[in-house]
Amino acid sequence: DVERCMPDNWYFHKPETEAMLLDILFIYCKLNPDIGYRQGMHEILAYVLWAVGQDAVDEEKRDDGQPEARPEPKLFYECLDARFVEHDTFTLFSVIMQTVKSSYEIGSTSHTATSSNSPIVERSRRITEVYLRQADPELAEHLTAIEIPPQVFLIRWIRLLFNREFSMDDVLDLWDKLFAEGPSLELVDLICVCMLLRIRWQRERLFHLSQGAD
Predict the structure, then answer these.
(1) Burial category of 29 from C-beta neighbours within 10 Å (exposed 0-12, middle 13-18, buried 19 and up)
(2) pLDDT, tens digit (0-9, with 9 covering 90-100), for 155-184
(3) Which class for 24: exposed (0-12), middle (13-18), buried (19 or more C-beta within 10 A)?
(4) Three-state DSSP class for 57?
(5) Is residue 89 within 8 Å of 47, Cβ to Cβ?
(6) 94 CB contacts (<8 Å, ≥6 apart)?
(7) Are 199 and 191 spatial neighbours (Cβ–Cβ below 8 Å)?
């Protein structure tokens, strides 16, 4: 998974980047044997590592050719010290996974995430049968009628926090808003509803446009 991570981004093909991803995932698995590693965790980690790495400051390599009018306080460099990118990434990843890992848990009677009693299935049902039904009863009824299990399309959105649905910059902006609301990430369910509504509206618009062209 690490070798295939972010194939279009050069940063994730660097040996030192792959080593950090592997080390962090290994330590996380050792500390969390109840969940271990599940496919997709490396993509969450990759975004955290990218964000931390981009903000990191190497104080020794700073270009101080001209004196700074407003020198940054020492605490600034301590918080963003490039020597501790891996450490900071692990800490942030662990905090995120405290909430997200429930989406990777499997049911007690099955080895797949689609087990009827797995947390991701229960959450998917709540999104479509409660939240979506309140916002768009017709769409919710349609999804029920065609018998498509909601986890089929929701599992990727929830587990990866939408990082395959948008560009990297947009995902990072979205994550800023998600994490600003608190570690519970309650907005994820509502964003799923918004995405379903937008998909419906886009399809309806395309349909009307095609009818008009005819």
Answers:
(1) middle
(2) 999 999 999 999 999 999 999 999 998 878
(3) buried
(4) strand
(5) no
(6) 28, 31
(7) no
| Residue whose pair of structure tokens reads 């994550």 in the numeric block | 175
110's torsion region: left (phi>0), alpha (psi -120 to 50) or beta? beta
Give the list of residues 6+ apart from residue 190 with CB closer than 8 angstroms, or none.
131
Phi/psi region, residue 180 (left: phi>0; alpha: psi -120 to 50; beta: rest), is alpha
Distances (CA, A) of 185 to 40, 84, 161, 190, 204: 17, 26, 10, 10, 30
DSSP-assigned beta bridge partners for residue 81? 57
**What is the distance between the alpha carbons of residues 105 and 21, in angstroms, rounded to a whole number?**
21
- Give me 103's structure tokens: 């989406």
Q: Which tokens hold the place of 1?
A: 């998974």
Give this prediction's pTM: 0.84
Q: 């792959």: which residue's tokens?
A: 18
Q: Each residue of 72-86: pLDDT tens digit?
A: 677 878 888 999 999
Nearest to 102 by CA among 79, 119, 114: 119
Residues whose CB falls within 8 Å of the CB of residue 77, separated by 6 or more in sequence, listed in order? 57, 59
CA distance 148 to 169: 31
Q: What are the backbone angles phi and psi of residue 57, rounded to the nearest 5°?
A: -125, 125
